[in-house]
Specification:
Shape: elongated
Strand content: 15-25%
Order of helices and strands: EHHEEEEEHEEEEEHH
Radius of gyration: 24 Å
Distance between the termini: 45 Å
Helix content: 25-40%
Structural class: alpha+beta
Largest sheet: 5 strands, antiparallel
Number of helices: 5
Mean pLDDT: 88
């Protein structure tokens, strides 16, 4: 976590860029300017969690079913949103069906078709996850990836565990420069100052960070180009011993 900054450092750097003097401890400072900046940084962090699937926020969750399960499954405490197409039934080695619409859920339940299918399907409702078949078979291993809403890590912790600031020593695990520019933009806007350059700085950096936050596929303009081939007679399969 060496590249990330404590909350106090982010606030002070944004304050200096906005023409203010830094504080020895912005989070506990009773000056109304720093009280406002702490609140604005909370908004910055929570909004940045919504703007992109930042790799640092990606988590994996697993549900192991019992045939006695009758209630929807609880989602993780830090659950923000599901990453599309990451749900898998690892037991049967197939992708999960869904998310089911209310109409699909009612149809499958009413026709009892779900008990005949080999696919586990899901829907999210009231902050929980419902699965079909219902009740489920015993021993289904369901996994999915999601974006965590925890963008802060308390001092002494090994994993992010907060979504609101508790102390100036909390570490922000989001990109530090992006966090500084966003806080500066929000502060200038809240004060009614001209934000033209601050908005340009933030928008430019946001686009850059989104583009560089994950790797990119090899571009292929050929008619048959389909990117990386998981099974390729030229690249990753041998000449003999098939089916051995």
């Amino acid at each position: 976590m060496a590249r990330y900054l404590p909350v106090n450092d982010i606030i002070n750097r944004a304050a200096v860029e906005a023409g203010l003097l830094p504080s020895s401890d912005p989070v506990t400072d009773t000056d109304e300017t720093y009280i406002q900046m702490v609140g604005l940084l909370n908004s910055c962090g929570q909004e940045l969690c919504e703007l992109n699937d930042w790799p640092v926020l990606v988590r994996t969750y697993e549900i192991n079913t019992l045939d006695t399960d009758t209630e929807p499954y609880e989602l993780p405490d830090d659950f923000n949103y599901l990453i599309d197409q990451t749900g898998w039934d690892r037991t049967n080695k197939v992708a999960m069906g869904g998310p089911l619409s209310a109409q699909d859920w009612t149809y499958l339940g009413g026709r009892d078709l779900s008990s005949q299918t080999i696919y586990a399907s899901f829907r999210q409702v009231e902050g929980k996850m419902d699965l079909l078949p219902q009740p489920p078979p015993n021993g289904l291993r369901i996994t999915f990836e999601y974006i965590s809403r925890n963008w802060l890590m308390e001092q002494g912790e090994q994993t992010p565990n907060r979504d609101t600031i508790g102390a100036g020593s909390d570490t922000c695990i989001l990109d530090p420069l992006l966090s500084i520019k966003f806080l500066k933009l929000k502060f200038l806007s809240a004060k009614g100052f001209d934000i033209t350059m601050a908005a340009l700085e933030f928008d430019t950096l946001l686009a850059s960070r989104i583009g560089k936050s994950t790797g990119a596929p090899i571009l292929n303009a050929s008619r048959g180009g389909r990117g990386f081939q998981y099974l390729s007679t030229y690249g990753n399969t041998g000449n003999t011993n098939y089916g051995g």
